[in-house]
Every structure is written in structure tokens, then in C-alpha cells.
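Would you be willing to look carefully at the protein I have copied below?

:::
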Amino acid sequence: MMLNMIRAYLFATGPGTVVPGGLHAFVKTQSGLDVPNIEFMFHTVPPQTRLWLPIVRPAYQDAYAIRPTLLHPVSRGRVRLRSADPRDPVSIMYNFFSAPEDLPLLREGFRKAREVGEQPAMEPYRDAEVSPGPKVKKDAEIDAFIRRTALTAHHPAGTCRMGSDFDAALDPRLRVRGVEGLRVVDASAMPDLVSAHINACVLMMAEKASDIIRLDT
């Protein structure tokens, strides 16, 4: 593994250049939707994956998972100050499933992910379902599993949104309202969530912001 990582760093070749779990699918739960509302994140290695050597250490058992992700949740979280001390960490409340529309939609994404996993084309790579297990079928059982295991997709956005209305923290040129010479140029400035990962969008925002700053100065 060490040699492959060095090879990947120096020559950009070999197995070290491939990140496990790099497969994604964007799904519409209904045909009439303008944009996908569910993303499938395919994990091609199990959580207990580790380095191993023949004879010295046994290999881990192969497994895969499909993680359905809600792209446009109605629920909204909050980011607040804990105190007037800027060194105190902020208080973050995710508020998962605070809007009643979100859980049924994610349940539908779960069912479609399971349907994909049960396709004949996946049979050579599939054994018994481990989590949550084939006995979990009823809506209430699926909902309980989702509530127990749900987590963020690690792409927070929209906590300091821009907009033309005065309720927005930033104006359309990414300037913080009421503060001279301060702009916010990251995913927190997004007025709404995009239908994908935010990385490329943040890069485009940064390019646009650099143009705006040049014009304003």
C-alpha cells in the first residue's frame, strides 16, 4: 500500500489513485420532477476495511452498500452563537426530519436503493443483506432504521445566504450587510441547496467572487 501511494503521488498511476466508494447516481423518485431529489452513494468497501497481508493478517470480507441521500430536504437546521466570546464553538442544530415531508421521501429512496441492490446484475457481488436486514420491510421499521442511522452528507450550505432581500446575511455581491470590507465566499453563501455535491459550485463561486472583487476595487 505504501508503494502504491508513493506511485500515485509521483506518477498519478496505480490503485492508489482510486478512492473506494467513488460511485454515485442521481435519482428522481417521480418522473415529473425537474431535478433529482435522491442521490445514491455507493460504498464499495465495508466499514471494517483495513490493510492486510497474506498469512500475517486475514483479508476482510468484501461488501458494498448503497446510501440514499436526500438532496433537497425541507427541514432546516440552525447555526447560532453560544456566547459573545468568539472563541466559543458555535451551536449547530441539524433538525433532521423536522419537516414531515422528508422522512417519507428518504424512505422511498431506501426502497429504490434496495431494489437496485436486488437486481440480477448485482448477484455475483451480493450475499445476505446485513443492514438493516431483509426482515425490515414495513414503513415503520424502515423509518426507525433511518432515524437511528441518519447523518449529514458533510456538505453544509446556506448558513449565511446571499440575496437581494434584507433578510439575507449577504447582498448579491457576497458582502456582509452592515460590515464594511467583509465578504463570505463559500457554500454558506448559497441561497439554496444544489442537486449534487457542492465542491464544483464553490469553486465557481470563488472564481466569480474574484471577478466581483476586482471590479469593486
In short: The chain has two domains: 2-154, 155-217. The first strand starts at residue 23 and ends at 27. Residues 2-154 form a domain with the Glucose Oxidase; domain 3 fold (CATH 3.30.560.10).
